[in-house]
Amino acid sequence: MKKSEPMSESYYYILLCLAKGANHGYGIMQMTEQLSGGAVKIGSGTMYGATGNMMKKGWIQEIMSNEPGVERRRLYRLTDSGRDALREEISRLKRMLTNAEGV
Predict the structure, then answer these.
(1) Rounded to an integer, what is the distance from CA 91 to the centroid of its chain?
(2) Which residues are CB-contacts of 38 (< 8 A; sequence separation ≥ 6)?
(3) Of the candidates 76, 71, 79, which has an alpha carbon nearest to the alpha carbon of residue 50?
(4) Which value, to the nearest 10 degrees, does the dihedral of the CA atoms of residues 53, 92, 82, 23 take?
(5) Residue 60 bridge partners (DSSP)
(6) How does strand 74-78 pair with strand 60-64?
(7) d(CA 59, CA 96)
(8) pLDDT band at 71 (very low <50, low <70, confident <90, very high)
């Protein structure tokens, strides 16, 4: 089994949000706060730096909204590679929790 590097909390939540469907940056920031119960807040600088890096990794793609009446808005969607990276991170986190049982 190949060892994967731990994913930052920001990357994890961005991918988790996009696993639920395409979204724009502000929507991802709001959903992250909701999913984490307010424990994780992603700022706009972190958001756009992370999305740029994840596009370079091939984990997400930028798509344009074709919703009528809405100005062109950047939307992001998860790629198959991004879904694999998210699943790997979830498996890693589960292993860590299993190892901690009984402590």
Answers:
(1) 15
(2) none
(3) 76
(4) -80
(5) 78
(6) antiparallel
(7) 24
(8) low
Contact of 32 with 41, CB cutoff 8 Å: yes
Distance CA 96, CA 73 (A): 38
- 103 vs 91: CA distance, rounded Å: 20
Token reading at 9: 């909390």
Q: Show the domains of the chain with their CATH numbers.
A: 9-102 (1.10.10.10)
Cα angle 20-24-26, degrees, rounded to a multiple of 5: 105
Query: What is the rounded CA–CA span in Å between residue 58 and residue 77?
Result: 11
C-beta neighbour count of 17 within 10 angstroms: 22
pLDDT at 1 over 90: no
Written as six digits, the tokens of 1 are: 């089994």
Kindly report, residue by residue over 7-63, the tens digit of the pLDDT: 999 999 999 999 999 999 999 999 999 999 999 999 999 999 999 999 999 999 999
